[in-house]
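Do me a favour: review this protein, sequence plus structure tokens, and tell me how the chain folds. Record follows.
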Amino acid sequence: MTDDIDRVRDAFAGRYAIERVLGSGGMATVYLARDLKHERDVAIKVLRPELAAAVGSDRFLREIRITAQLNHPHILPLLDSGEAEGFLFYVMPFVAGGSLRGHLSRGLPVPLDVALRIAQQVAAALEHAHRQGVVHRDVKPENILFSEGLAVVGDFGIAKAVSAAGPDSLTRTGVPVGTPGYMSPEQAAAVTELDERTDVFGLASVVYEMLVGETPGLWPTEDALRLGRFVDASSEHRQRLDGLPGRVEQTLVKALAVRPDRRFATPVQFADALTAAAAGSVRLNDSQVRKILERAAELEATQPTEEAALSIGSVEQIAADVGIPPELVREAAQELARPAAAEVARRGEIAPRLPERHRDRVSVDRTVEWEIQESEHEALVNEIQGTLGIVGHVSTVGGTLTWSPAASGEDVRKVVVTVTRDVGRTRIHVEEQLILTDWRSIVLAASGIAGASFGALLGLALEGGNPSPLILIPIALGISWGIFASRHALMQNLREVRGPELENLADRLAAIKGRP
């Protein structure tokens, strides 16, 4: 490094006094220097020698001259450029406010209002350049600097000059066209004819990093575009995204689409949509959420389905898709439960009436704020089988583990456990179909006989001791009543036993994460 800076000092002697290295990247080294003619501090970017050889001085200086025509408050002006002792360079004002990279390196996400302001200023700079036919191609935090509190964009033209050298030349130098994490898919595919939408992608990556702390890591899938959510986001990213207004995430997903035609057409369109999303996103209040839950309860009561019963977990998932925090849904559900319980007590009922087809089932749902990993599946299965005392079959499809008893028959408990990994959370559903077997069947038969006897006695009493065919009516009614009453009591007993058992199992599964 000492030899390099000495060579640079010698090359610029008499024009610029090189003081120290400000930074170094894949394409260039930046030096703090003193402009001897104008007596001002400047930043000189000197291309790496191997890159300079690949690009060529004519091509580089041609692109830099185009950049010199850009004149905008949010574009860092070009003061000088040229070749000195074999070094290709260009000179910019020294910006004491540092770069966005310097701010992000502190490890704290940027507040939403600040990120929006920076995005608007960078978008305005890019839009001006695009009108002059210049696509930046390398929008990243290192190229966004701060001067008097305003964001200014630097390094226009250098990426175009580098990419114009051709992929073969760049492969030999080891310099990528663009920066991983901010480079658009079309750049990664070595497409040379790039337009404004490449800079939309780069700016969206920068905004994502400002709000979340890191770049997305994965390009959004078609499912992500359809839902407007980063479905592959890590749990840490998911937590921060959930803290943003709902439509902000949708806007970022669109701006980061793999196909350019699915993105915003210009950076300004993206920045405007982002600002509108932040200002116009509506969080539903308690009253609105209550209405949603009331309607869901009506649908569940009138149109129940065995396969897809609507649970609070389901509502939480739907709410999360539109930006409603899960805890708000849970609070509203608890609030709804209070008047429902009061009404049940007022009518003297044991429990609210359930649709007939659900009376023979007990189910429990849990939603926990961690993502289950495949390495934890074995612990889940062991917990299920140890708690229930049943050996079962296991299947895993698409991140969902399903457990069911291995044996079949009337004497086997019909328990099914489903553990589904979602974005930033895990959903646990435990359900058992209640079946009366063994001694319970005997009780039902005895109840039927008792009911028949009662019916016969009642019939004889009604007939004045003279049997007739009409006696069959009260006998049938007695049998039905005996069986129904006994079955109802037995099923109620089963629910009271099985319910707490399944609750305990669900709680134990929810505590798997982090267990040694």
Q: What stands out?
A: The longest strand covers residues 16-24.
